[in-house]
Predict the structure.
Amino acid sequence: MPVKIRQVGPCFAGEVIGLDLTKPISREDADAVHAGMDEYAVLVIRGQHITPEQQLAFTQSLGELEHAIGTSLRKDDELRLPTIFADVSNLDKDNKPFDREDRRRLFAIGNRIWHSDSSFKATPAKYSILNAISIPSKGGNTEFADMRAAYDTLDDERKQMAEGLICEHSQMYSRQQVGFFDFTDEERERFKPVRQTLIRTHPSTGRKSLYLSSHAGSIVGWPDPEARIFLRDLTEHATQRKFVYAHKWQVGDLVMWDNQRTMHRARPFPAEEPRDMRRTTLMSEGPTVDQAAA
C-alpha cells in the first residue's frame, strides 16, 4: 500500500496512512515522509506499537541522528534510556514518576513553554520523532505552532527589524522563565549560550520562517530588556490559536515535526501519573549562522 498523507487540524499537520514501522521502510516511503514534512511540518503516524530499535531504525532511514548528551539534569547513572533517545518522560531509572520537588522534574517543566528542540546546540535539531509509550489519564497534549505562517503574517516593519538578527539560545534562559535558577557551575558551563539566526530559510522549500524558542534570551547588539520584549512580542504573534495544532496523544502514536519551522510545547498533566515519551532526533544541516552566511 503506498504511503498517503491527509490533513488533520490546521493546514500544517498531516496524518500518515499506510506506514508500518515494525518493518523496514523503503527508500520510496522515506522520500514520501520527507515530502510530507516539507508540505505539512508536523506528521502523525498512529497505531505504531514499536520497539525502541524499530523507532531508531525508522529515524536512521531519514537522516543523521542527534545524541541527547548533557541536555537534561539526569546524571549518567540515572539514565533510563541510551543517549540516542531523548527521555522526555517524567520517570526515573526505576520507571517511577519523579517526586513533585525533584529538580529533574522542575527543570523539565520548561518544556511546557514554546520552544524548538536543541536550538541551544550550535547545530540544532531537524526532525523530532516522539513515540507515546504511556500517557496520563488527562492532559499532556503537545501543541505545535507554524513558524512559516507566523513569518508570512508579520507586518513589514517587524520583518525588516528581524532580518539579519542573531539570537543567543540557552536552556538557562528557558528554565529561568519558569522560575528555575538552581544551576551548578558545571551546568552553567554546559548550557553556555549559542548563536542562531532569528529568520531561517528552509533548505528544501526555500520558504522563510521565524526561528523562535524560549531558549532565546538575547539578541546580539541589543540591550537585553529590548531584545526580550521583541522576542516575546514575536512569540505572542506566532502562537495565536489560528497557527496552532494541538495533538491529543494515544498510546502508539508517533508524531514527528520539523524544528526548522515549528515551535511546540507540552501541556500539564497529573504529576503522580507516568507519561512515557521517547524522542529520537535528526540533526539539521549545520549551524544556522553558517547557513545564513552562505
Remarks:
- The CA atoms of residues 162 and 255 lie 30 Å apart.
- The first helix runs from residue 27 to 40.
- The chain has a mean pLDDT of 96.
